[in-house]
Amino acid sequence: MPSFFKYLVLLALATSAALATPQGNSQCAHFCQDYYQKCGFKNVGQCVSNAAHNGFECECCPSGKKWCDNKCCDIKNDNNHCGGCGQKCDGGRKCKDGKCECPDGKKWCDNKCCDIKNDNNHCGGCGQKCNGGKKCDKGECK
After folding, report:
1. Do the beta carbons of residue 11 and residue 18 sit within 8 Å?
2. Could you read off the pLDDT of 95-118 as tens digits, one per residue?
3. How far is CA 122 from CA 9, 32, 113, 114, 136, in A?
4. DSSP string covering the chain
5. How many whole angstroms separate alpha carbon 49 and alpha carbon 32?
6. Which of 23, 86, 104, 105 is deepest in the core (most CB within 10 A)?
7. What's this model's pTM, rounded to 2 decimal places?
8. What phi and psi, each to the nearest 5 degrees, are found at residue 110?
9. pLDDT in the model for residue 4
């Protein structure tokens, strides 16, 4: 069998194997139908083929961004997709460099950002309570 025909047979086998994952292929086909031009592909088939070779990662976002909620999201700074899709920052935290962090001067205690300089339940640090009528002032019970 000439090498050209071997190549065609191998290509056909590879294509059928890639298309054997119906859910991934179907999802990518829908994605590619809507976004192939935006992603720089000449046609839908080229987009689907690229997705098949990348484990059906159907996205085309620039570096540092990821396809979440039908758009490219900055996973280093997006509070709803911090470090990855669907990873939300809560309790007053903000996404910074792909990690949820409390604002300056606050610390993560009891699932929220606490002002450890003025919080009577977390005075100077998490769980350090001011007792006996004392109030937290600049991180000390007085």
Report:
1. no
2. 999 999 999 889 999 999 999 999
3. 68, 51, 10, 7, 8
4. --HHHHHHHHHHHHHHHHTT-HHHHHHHHHHHHHHTTTTT-SSHHHHHHHHHHTTT----PPTTEEEETTEEEETTT-TTSSSSTT----TT-EEETTEEEPPTTEEEETTEEEETTT-TTSSSSTT----TT--EETTEE-
5. 10
6. 105
7. 0.56
8. 50, 45
9. 43
Tokens of 112: 């929220």
| 11 token code pair | 């290509």
In whole angstroms, what is the distance from residue 54 CA to residue 94 CA?
31
For tokens 């998490």, the residue is 126
Alpha carbon distance 101, 92 (integer Å): 9
Q: Which residue has the tokens 């570096």?
A: 63
